[in-house]
């Protein structure tokens, strides 16, 4: 780790992370044409965003920066592969088996517990102790809707309050337990391959997290909140399940071991791409 990366990580501790993120959210929701068009065009230029895949390629057609950031893609932009799919565009920063102690790898030298990640419920965490995990980091230039790796029925949703550290690799290398410290939304699905947890992790300047069944869920406050719904919510493989208003990370946990194939750490993945093969 370079000195600048360490300094970047340390400087985040005293920052008013939530206040900065909410302020960013207000700018991102501004519908003044001059403000939102200036922001969108500057963002496209800075992060080299490919608008040719967007369902609406005209940057000025979006009502707000948030609408642009969570833009839909053309129907054929992300063909669905075999097996378990990548839930999002991004970098496959970590993947593998959970350890016998129920730990996930965050970065070299850093692990965190599945129990803490999922909100502290030991019985729920125990369902995943023999399973696998994958972490997908969404950069600013990526498509920011999150989709289902496999068909699943929502069992429950858990909001877990926390900090809002950046989730880039520099911070992951230095801040212990990063993904289990940040604000996050835990979605537990029952699938034909056993339980699956999709954890949408908040981050610095992420203004909100949404799901397709509840709309905007974060920001909330206080203690973890568990939510169940009166009727079954079934989402098909490849269907949208949520989105980030500004980028972050998805941590997937599978209750059963899966085979990740030829993927390498740090590989670029796209939503719908084959990520892993479930075991019998």
What are its keywords?
globular; 19% helix; 31% strand; four-stranded antiparallel beta sheet; 7 helices; nine-stranded antiparallel beta sheet; 18 strands
Terminus-to-terminus distance? 40 Å
Rg, Å, rounded: 18 Å
How much of the polypeptide forms β-strand, as a percent range?
A: 25-35%
H/E series: HHHHEEEEHHEEEHEEEEEEEEEEE
Count of runs of 4 or more consecutive helical residues: 7
Shape: globular
In helices, the fraction of residues equals 10-25%
**Poorly predicted spans:** none
How many DSSP-defined strands? 18
Q: Can you give the mean pLDDT?
A: 86
Helix/strand/pairing class, anyone? alpha+beta
Biggest sheet character? 9 strands, antiparallel
């Amino acid at each position: 780790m370079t000195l600048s990366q360490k300094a970047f990580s340390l400087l985040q501790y005293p920052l008013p992370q939530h206040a900065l993120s909410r302020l960013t959210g207000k700018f991102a929701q501004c519908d003044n044409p001059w403000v939102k068009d200036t922001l969108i065009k500057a963002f496209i230029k800075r992060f080299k965003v490919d608008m040719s895949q967007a369902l609406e390629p005209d940057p000025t057609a979006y009502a707000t920066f948030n609408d642009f950031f969570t833009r839909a893609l053309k129907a054929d932009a992300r063909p669905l592969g075999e097996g378990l799919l990548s839930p999002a565009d991004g970098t496959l920063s970590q993947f593998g088996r959970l350890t016998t102690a129920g730990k996930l790898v965050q970065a070299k030298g850093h692990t965190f517990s599945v129990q803490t990640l999922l909100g502290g419920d030991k019985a729920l965490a125990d369902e995943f102790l023999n399973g696998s995990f994958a972490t997908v980091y969404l950069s600013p230039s990526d498509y920011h809707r999150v989709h289902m790796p496999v068909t699943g029925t929502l069992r429950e949703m858990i909001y877990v309050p926390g900090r809002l550290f950046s989730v880039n690799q520099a911070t992951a290398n230095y801040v212990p337990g990063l993904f289990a410290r940040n604000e996050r939304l835990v979605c537990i699905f029952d699938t034909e391959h056993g339980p699956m947890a999709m954890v949408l992790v908040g981050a610095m300047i992420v203004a909100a997290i949404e799901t397709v069944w509840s709309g905007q869920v974060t920001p909330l406050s206080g203690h973890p909140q568990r939510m169940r719904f009166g009727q079954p919510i079934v989402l098909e493989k490849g269907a949208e399940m949520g989105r980030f208003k500004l980028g972050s990370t998805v941590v997937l946990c599978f209750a059963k071991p899966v085979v990740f194939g030829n993927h390498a750490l740090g590989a670029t993945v796209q939503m719908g791409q084959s990520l892993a093969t479930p075991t019998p």
